[in-house]
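Please review this one:
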Amino acid sequence: ESIFDLFKISSISRKTIGAKLFKGHDWDSPAYRFIRFDHIPSVSTPALHQILKQVQNNEGFVFVATLRQDKGSKGTLIGLEAPSGSRQFEIVSNGRANTLDLVYVVEGSQNVVSFEDVDLSDSQWKNITLYVHGENAHLYVGCSLIDSVILDEPFYEHLRPEGGQMFVAKGTIRENHFR
């Protein structure tokens, strides 16, 4: 009930226009190369409501991903759009700055928390775990703790599913689409 496969609840499969099945790190799990971001489907509405309810009830979340990012690229791993199309929340891997950015909006103000020296965009498979609980955020790459930060406030309390959409690998601007 509290574990969500974002590919599954977004109906991303080998038949999805914009996602190409790719040889992954783990033979048991699908991997995709995203090439047409305008065709990436959003997380289903009932699943989005359930995800945000669980995040708020559990006072946080654990985001786990295995990725292989092109050198020097920048991309959104997951993003939550408001009905207006603006982002409420996103996780961005920025290879140019060598950071993983947690971006969220609270009361109309955008906040960015950057985990530095993450070394994700080296064209090698990496496992990442972002653990957010209360006002604390911890980033692990593999089994190594990269950094822990204290957030200004628990932003997830302000996330609203009504009319919103959640996407995997789709940025707010073209340069932030994950490659």
Summary: The mean pLDDT is 87. The chain is about 10% helix and 40% strand.
